[in-house]
C-alpha cells in the first residue's frame, strides 16, 4: 500500500506543478492533499485481507496518507 500512497502524492504534486507553472518551490499541507482527494470523482483502494479484497474509501486513504507522511516526518502528529 505504500506505493499506492506515494502514487497519490505524486499525482497531487504533478497537479500542483501543472497549475503553478513557473513556480520553483510549491508548498502544501495535509489539508490541501485531503481536499484534492475529496475532489477526485473516484478514489478507492482494494486491500488484500486474508485471501479476499476489501474495498476502502477516501477516509481510509486519507488515514493511510497521514500515517505515511507522519512516518516520514512530513506531517505533524495528532494530539
Task: Please explain how this structure is put together.
There is one protein chain. The chain has 79 residues and is an alpha+beta fold. Helix content is 53%, strand content 13%. It contains three helices and two strands; from the N terminus they run ααββα. It has helices spanning 2-19, 30-39, 58-71; strands at 45-49, 52-56. A two-stranded antiparallel sheet has the order 1-2. A hairpin with a 2-residue loop joins strand 1 (45-49) and strand 2 (52-56). Helix 1 (2-19) packs across helix 3 (58-71). The longest helix is centred in the N-terminal third of the chain and has 18 residues, at 2-19. The radius of gyration is 14 Å and the shape is elongated. The relative contact order is 0.16. The mean pLDDT is 90.
Secondary-structure map with pairings?
Elements: H1 2-19, H2 30-39, E1 45-49, E2 52-56, H3 58-71
Helix pairs in contact: 1-3
Amino acid at each position: 500500500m505504500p506505493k499506492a500512497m506515494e502514487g497519490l502524492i505524486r499525482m497531487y504534486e504533478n497537479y500542483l506543478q501543472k497549475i503553478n507553472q513557473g513556480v520553483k518551490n510549491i508548498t502544501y499541507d495535509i489539508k490541501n492533499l485531503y481536499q484534492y482527494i475529496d475532489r477526485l470523482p473516484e478514489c478507492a483502494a482494494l486491500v488484500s485481507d486474508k485471501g479476499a479484497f476489501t474495498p476502502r474509501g477516501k477516509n481510509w486513504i486519507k488515514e493511510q496518507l497521514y500515517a505515511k507522511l507522519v512516518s516520514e516526518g512530513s506531517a505533524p502528529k495528532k494530539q
